[in-house]
Amino acid sequence: MSSRSSPAPEVDIMSVHEIESGYVSGSSSESSLPDVYFTKPHLAFLNRQLRFLEPQDILRWCITTLPGLFQTTAFGLTGLATLDMLSKMKIPRPQMVDLIFLDTLHHFSETLALVDQVRSRYPHVNVHVYRPDGVDSAQDFAHKHGDRLWEINDQLYDWVAKVEPAQRAYRELQVAAVLTGRRRSQGGKRGDLDVIEVDEAGLIKVNPLANWSFQQVEDYIRTNNVPYNVLLDRGYKSVGDWHSTQPIKAGEDERAGRWSGQQKTECGIHNPRSKFAQYLREQEMKQREDSLHKALSGFEVAV
Q1: Is residue 62 annotated as part of the catalytic site, yes or no?
Q2: DSSP helix/strand/coil, 107
Q3: Are the C-beta atoms of residues 265 and 252 closer than 8 Å to each other?
Q4: pTM for the full model?
């Protein structure tokens, strides 16, 4: 009688190697490798080093260091300069930095025309467009959320038009790090901006042109013939939604035309996520209270 031996158990050679060597590598099993993160001392050290580098050198560091890297942009001058710098680095396709554009459905027509120009000028760069959930036009938006939501409830507007679409983009595209167009010279909360930041959810934000002035950015755009928003030539230095952006006067900060007359300097995507989490909880509680009040009022009428 012949006997059949049981198959030998499979051995994870890499796991054995890791145990013997005490190290892991890029070919190690996923469970063996930690997510990308920075301790506070490491983050402080990197910011001390990177602040003395030119933007191109910071971008090279990002490409070789940060997986899941994207650029978030509304196609302002700083974002366009970053895009052009990246295009000149001859980055191979797997390391190309795709763009994320949040189409709030309330951009200037000039901004949307610029998106098409960018696609034509930089055909190898993917532009991922994210809009408010469930709507495709300003009319749809008004029908779902009411007219002039930005005046009635600006926090809700920021959430549905910008913050939620951004979080959806990060989730669907598996974004681990983003390049932004923020600079210290823009003032407000950006005055003490670091080159690298990490938000509450662990998203790494890199501000490669943090040290540059508006004039440096504009000089780069014109010297390199980078397409830009024609509103710049009409006095707009910072362009957002049409309803919250206006030209600035000589001598004013470049972002003075954003939310003029309001105690507001950021659109929401660069505010702490906990702020919006708290806001949503408060909205939910208010809805529950309103529903309970209606139910009780109906009960009293019936009695």
Answers
A1: no
A2: strand
A3: no
A4: 0.78
